[in-house]
């Protein structure tokens, strides 16, 4: 796999056991990397099965495949996938509401804060009781006191809904979807 600065994947694909595995623009738990057809480009993974794109079948996750979360780069304004460990989630990454995730980014907190766009109005909502790693109240309190820092994961994952990621200096991180300024009163 080609890695960019600070170990982030610079393309949406990796070569594992002789197969090119495509990682979607947002590779969250439950979103499985797909093997690209012979000769297809990694960009085809960003719009699988779109008109004119080669058919990209769903396949089992590759052994040792990286899981990632997107954050918006300050310099480019574009989402970039960062590698994470221990990703647990509820809902789906593309759901307009109800998505919650807990994970540990491989990048350091200082590198994240220098590279990715801050999110001004984070408001984590509660997760199901069965999803114990996500405590919206504690995350919200930490964001208010400056103990944690919020980043824009993806703007308008659905119209009017942003994905937000909060990261603590100790490496813990949490993601959720929330309404954005489109629905502000």
Describe the structure.
With 185 residues, this protein is mainly beta. It has a domain at 86-179. Helices cover 9% and strands 31% of the residues. It is built from two helices and nine strands. The strands form two sheets. The protein has a six-stranded antiparallel beta sheet with strand order 4-5-6-9-8-7. A three-stranded antiparallel beta sheet has the order 1-2-3, with no helix packed on it. A hairpin with a 6-residue loop joins strand 4 and strand 5 (79-90). It is globular. The model is unreliable at 1-65 (pLDDT under 50).
Provide keyphrases for this structure.
185 residues; mainly beta; 6-stranded antiparallel sheet; 2 helices; 9 strands; 9% helix; disordered N terminus
Strand and helix map with partners:
Blueprint: E1 13-16, E2 19-22, E3 34-35, E4 67-72, E5 79-90, E6 100-105, H1 109-115, H2 136-145, E7 149-158, E8 161-167, E9 173-179
Antiparallel strand pairs: 1-2, 2-3, 4-5, 5-6, 6-9, 7-8, 8-9
């Amino acid at each position: 796999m080609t890695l960019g600065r600070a170990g982030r994947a610079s393309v949406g694909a990796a070569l594992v056991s002789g197969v090119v595995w495509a990682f979607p623009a947002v590779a969250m738990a439950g979103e499985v990397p797909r093997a690209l057809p012979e000769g297809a480009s990694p960009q085809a993974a960003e719009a699988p099965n779109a008109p004119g794109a080669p058919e990209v079948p769903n396949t089992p996750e590759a052994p040792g495949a990286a899981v990632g979360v997107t954050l918006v780069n300050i310099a480019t304004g574009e989402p970039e996938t960062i590698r994470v460990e221990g990703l647990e989630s509820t809902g789906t990454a593309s759901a307009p509401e109800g998505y919650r995730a807990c994970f540990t980014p491989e990048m350091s907190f200082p590198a994240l804060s220098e590279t990715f766009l801050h999110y001004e109005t984070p408001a984590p909502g509660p997760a199901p009781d069965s999803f114990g790693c996500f405590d919206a109240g504690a995350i919200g309190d930490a964001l208010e006191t400056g103990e944690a820092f919020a980043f824009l994961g993806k703007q308008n994952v659905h119209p009017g809904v942003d994905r937000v990621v909060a990261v603590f200096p100790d490496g813990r991180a949490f993601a959720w979807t929330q309404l954005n300024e489109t629905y502000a009163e």
